[in-house]
Amino acid sequence: MKLFRQLFALGLIAALAACTQRIAVKDEHGQLQKQGHAANGLREGPWTHFHPNGAKQSEGNYSRDVQDGQWRWWYDNGLPEMFGSFHEGLRTGPWRLWHRNGQLRAEGSFGKGLEQGEWLFYTAEGTLERRGWYLNGQPCGPWENLDARGQVMSSGLRWQGAKCGPWISAPATREAYPLPKDLQLVEESNRRSGMTRAGGKEGPWVSSHAGGAVRVLCTFEADQPQGWVSVHSRDGALMALGEVQRGAPLGAWWIAGQTVELETPRPRAPWDGDWSTAFDGRLDWNVLERWIAEASSALQPQPVKAPEPSAVPAVVATAEPQPTIPARLQPLTEFEQRALPKLVELYGTGAGAFPLAQDSYASLPVGRDISIAKPELVAKPGDLLNRSLPVREFFRAPEGRVNLDQYRNQRHVLLVVMRGFGGQVCIYCTSQLLALAREREKLAAAQAEVFVVFPGSRSGMDAFLESYDRSRGSREAPPFGMLYDADLELTKQLGIQDKLAVPSCFLIDKQGLIRWAHIGKDHVDRPSVNQILTEIHRL
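Structure (tokenized):
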């Protein structure tokens, strides 16, 4: 039996080797662009990409067509651009980025492709410019902005990107921003701080080491630890990052420099009533779970206080560009490159079969689950008909703003809401934008002004537009207004939130009312341009 297994393994290795091929792609001038290996049409093993001048651009490993393990990038002058790791196609663990002159630009951590925990940003001269906390790619938690001398110029809290609560600016200026609905700020001196809803912890909470340094940033839902947790040493270094489910670690964890996959939740540790102070610098699961238990313990009646500054005028929150980390585009896989023209045809004319249901593509472990996380919370199209759009003013790329009210009594408006950057560019969003661009003349003839809304950070939109450019083979901008819903205000008010957004289309008539809506049943479900044109003609 043992001999049979050995022979079978040898036969399998030989079969895989037989279908493995080396790939080297050159441009029209013979300059090498990329090289590596593929097995059964999927990228496998080390790959290297090159700048047009021949300098190395990036280098790292692929596993079953997606980036996995450590990757490095360089500028075309040979200096490092960024360094970090991927887990099944998504950025994970600590990352560092550099300015073109070699100075450190930013450092922090990713979880499932999105910024999590504390990030620090530096100027091209090497001084710390700002620092703050992220949750699922959005600034959420304490933030500080510093001047060139390292002095704090302003500090306060952010919630899903927007400033909230009291902000203190130098010299001794205070402003109060609106808090999220039904939330209160709470602080236990030298222990922990965060927000509560109906007396229970909600959103990100920070607990501290003795001396005040941040120890644990933990996300709560209805007073239960739920979501992301980052653990830090007294000097601010990241020691662990991962997810908890009702207080129990689960899924992919980065701890003590290693990635561990927890397929079942670890037993939730009880709190023994003491707040630990001693720490020898070595983190293991016992210490980590004890700290999570302390962070999630019941709030103490004293010395809890709400740090509400007195006699401070309220400031109306306005959408503003958020601090973001550059989103490096992860290239389409070999399989996606073959499927792209078929998807463009599907989203253009509605003809053809869904091409990514073939070859077990859905089984590739790259976070490409197309399902909606909580479909019961997503609005139904009929709920939104004959209503005005709740948000009508947006930031517009490359710069500026646009108010959709200016098209009233003049043109119909087609608003196409993309999924957003969830750690990698979505091939369905790219294909949909390519299909819309291909049929732009038909849309213009139908007197429809088309806008594409990208939820989330500007850096995510930049990566999305880079994917569009590469897919077209040119740097031509999309022939539509590109808007971004940085604080997800439109997404939330329409009821189409799903981490970022459920891909949707809204047709707004000349009176400013939503007359037709298509809200995806999953991330693939998008109307074809032909279907959209039919709805426009009905108006």
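The chain has nine helices and 32 strands. Residues 2-18 form the longest helix (17 residues).
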